[in-house]
Write a structure and sequence with these properties.
7 helices; four-stranded mixed beta sheet; 204 residues; alpha/beta; two-stranded antiparallel sheet; elongated
Length: 204
Amino acid sequence: MKDKNTIGDIIKVLEQYAPIPYQEGYDNSGLQTGSASDEIKGVLLTLDCTEAVIEEAVAKGCNLIVAHHPVIFKGLKSLTGRSYVERTIIRAIQNNIAIYACHTNLDSVHNGVNAKIAEKLKLHNIRLLSYKPHTLMQLAFFVPVENTDEVLAAIHKAGAGRLASTAIAVFRFRAPVAFFLLNKQILPLARKASRNRYRKTGWR
């Protein structure tokens, strides 16, 4: 049994709410300095991480700073203190402070920054303008009828089928007969499934 919470435990909660794959291509959300395995002592929230914010974290005994904007957007070739970004990172490392950024992934999540702005503006009929590519996957399961609700509850708990905070997307049908095809692994297939569909997956 784990006695102490780590920085990684905090990050896990943040990324369950705002997954990293939701960020834009130019962004650099995630852990920027520090070790996720360190014990958490305190968390400081900020819009931007600056030298002053590092000093505040030190004074308050916080070893994790969660910022909206990443302090590192592009690669750094040196850390000599020439810019506020370099000085901020140097001070964070000197004081063993982790910096975590939660930027466009937090903007994009269904109840994140953009949703809150729309709420404050009292907008109606709010919907996603476009879905983030490569963030959704279609899952298909073949299970005994009597276990359907149990399986659905388990995959929903894991996050599958959630397109909004209260919406669950699921389609189910009863296959007339199922059989097993053995080729390195056992695959349950419905009798009426399209042969071409499975050929595309490489199954034989």
